[in-house]
Amino acid sequence: MESETGTTALRQLGHAEKYSTTRSHLGIYLNVGLTARYKRPRGVAVKPALFRALSQMIWKHPILSAIPIAADTTSPYFVRLPYITLSKVVAFVEDYGNSLSSDGREYLDNVLEEQHNRPFKDPTLPFWRICVLEYSKTPTHFTLMLIVHHSLMDTQSALSVHEELEGLMSQDARYEPDDTIDTPSASLLPPLEDLYTLTVSQEFLESQNAHQEPPPDSWTAVPQSTPVRTRFSSLLLSTAETMGLAAMSKKEQTSVTAALQTLIASSIFSALPSRYRTLQADCAVSLRRFLPEPIRATSLGCYVGSLSMTYGRMVSFNWTEARHTKTIIDQELAKGASDMPVGYLGHIPDQHAWMLQKLGRRRMSAFELSNIGKVPASRKLSFEIESILFSQSASACSAAIKVSAVTGRDGLLALGFTWQEGIVEANMIEQIKQTLKCEVDKLVLHG
């Protein structure tokens, strides 16, 4: 059915999609981002190549022209925009690094922080946007920021977007791209719960329904509150540090994700007074491994879950704890997607009321780690991803610190630290980053 504005009603949001839409509507959490530095052919303009690629992707992926509406109700749904004007969603910034640090890292962090404080509000525009940074002193490279509403896709999907872009931009230019693109009539992919049964036991349901408070000795920062102003800072591990951490994790029979999560926990403990004896950590996990066709690794959608675990106070990082972390992750995934918070969402009649009652209370988790792994190997294209950075908004109603991890083709593991201003202090984040890097250096040196 087509509305007066030309949009076409598609389908109702799934429970996880509704969760993201409710959070953004209430100003609790806004968006997610994936930023890549690309190599490009000298003398080839980025804009026409990018617009050609985007026009093809919009036709291939109907979610790119879908936006959630009726966010203030218990039954929000997607509608399709009749067209997308690319110049309204793609911005170009030139000579961005003139007065900044040599690698542009400080500037990039500042731009991402600004992006993660900008909500998607205009119902005539898609709920994704791109910002391209170009610098005349490096004509063989550019940086592309992709910012998306989380109801449209998870970060694995955002990585697929970047990989498709590099392939399409590398194709020979056979036509001049249009600025305005008509949108496809194809149906959206199904939501998570229509693809896979998210089993919730009675015991888990009762635990989630009960009012939960963390123990007094568990650090959870300041109680949950709005408004949210996101702060962001990145940390890059060198190629030697990244390779060393991966090699040591394998040698110690654990995973990079488990080692990273343990490193973050021990680094947070180092910044806390001794009265804090425990930390709860959340770990985001992809659920695509459980999903049938038509969902593939490259499908665009929101197919993530999470699991939680508690750490006792550590003087420093240790591999025993990292192995224990991997064991917990493996055990939870072996249960399928049962008894995960994403499954509980289907048992909440009014997500607005459920979310609002959290405000003023202590949160459960100190931090959350989301690691999307390593960018697949180079395909020797003319436009090609080299480094990459995963980032997201802070959230008023979940972990106090969010750490987003990804490893680029340049061999650098990039960590994006997000926190809410007034909830966590910036100097604490800097202390955590410094401690984590020192711990990794020690592991690599003595490995």
TrEMBL record:
Alphabetical list of InterPro entries matching this protein: Alcohol_O-acetyltransferase, Atf2/Sli1-like, CAT-like_dom_sf
A Pfam family matched in the record: AATase
GO molecular function: N-acetyltransferase activity
Superkingdom of origin organism: Eukaryota
Listed name of the protein: Alcohol acetyltransferase
Organism whose genome encodes this protein: Aspergillus caelatus
Taxon lineage: Eukaryota, Fungi, Dikarya, Ascomycota, Pezizomycotina
